[in-house]
Write a structure and sequence with these properties.
Layout: H1 6-27, E1 32-38, H2 46-54, E2 57-63, H3 66-75, E3 82-83, H4 87-95, H5 115-122, E4 132-144, H6 145-152, H7 161-165, H8 167-170, E5 178-180, H9 184-194, H10 204-217, E6 223-224, H11 229-235, E7 240-244, H12 245-257, E8 264-267, E9 274-280, H13 289-299, H14 302-312, H15 327-330, H16 339-344, H17 354-369
Helix pairs in contact: 9-17, 10-17, 11-12
The structure holds pentane-1,5-diamine.
Amino acid sequence: MKSPFHHLLVLASAVALLAGAGGARAQEEEKVLNIYNWSDYIADDTIANFEKETGIKVRYDNFDSNEILHAKLVAGKTGYDIVVPSSNWARMQIQGDLLMKLDKSKLPNLKNVDPAIAAQLAKIDPGNEHVVDWLWGFTTVGINVDKVKAALGGTLPDNAWDLVFKPEYISKLKSCGVSFLDSGDEVVPAMLHYMGKPRVTTNAADYNQALTALKAVRPYVTLFSSSGYINDMANGSVCLALGWSGDINIARQRAIENKTGQNIQALIPKTGGLLFFDVMGIPKDAPHPQNALKWINYILDPKVDAGLTNKVFYANPNKESKPFIKPEVANNPTVFLPADELAKMAGTADALNNEIRRLQNRTYTSFKTGL
Ligand code: N2P
């Protein structure tokens, strides 16, 4: 005999079923994805192919510094579904509860991620729960080979950092245009590293020394730029840049394609550049988190990741993408660093905090403004 509660049970499960269906419906998002990424950091067809594949319309905005992205994330309600901070900044954002945990069941392509890269990122995101590598590269020195050699009388210094940080070199290059990245978290750690100190430190005396050394080269910096310097190098109006590895390679490529006659080269400093990993994350208050997961999974397709690297000359984390990378890109040691060079790079394990950011900002602003 059926229990007197039978009808009640049937009713309860029917309600549960309906609620479940309603929940699923509520999860279906409008077909929009808002992305905030660095400029010059994507292939021509990456967005169009995603839109075709998913029917999701992408709105794509650019930034040029972690400082700007971080300020927006802290303020909240950015409207963005995907953001791409560098990993040392992502650590602060994860600790500040600004990024969502990823639903890995929606990311089958995580299987393509090189375990060595995942291990690197686990240092700032234990368990790889919040972020996935977009691309990685290093902060370094780029030159117009012919102009720099001519200005220096034929020879380059042994350590490429000398070009930007030693007055005897940079003073000779001012007349052909010198650009520095417009970010305290680039210029200050680069100088600290050049001086043989950790790129991230809380020692105020180190920052004072860095500032003194930076002030000595300030008269020779003609431009502060984190994106425009690409075209300036390509067309010959900047001959020396403290910039990013891939961007300098983009300048090289543009010079070749536009036949500007400029021979641009990214250098690998003898003492190593500053390694960075830029990572995809989903803001805690993202309006379209499901679409964001679809984007991350799409990017981790081997061909899509290879397309990024082929276009912007930064390494991707995808171990299955190698066969799709053009030989001239695969063989470029400033894209895929040889193991001995990689070992020399100043790593990213020491994340930032607000105290370090204050020290960096104070040093950088004083350097830039001369006050
Ligand atoms: C994009 C360069 C981004 C590298 N053009 C710095 N994280």
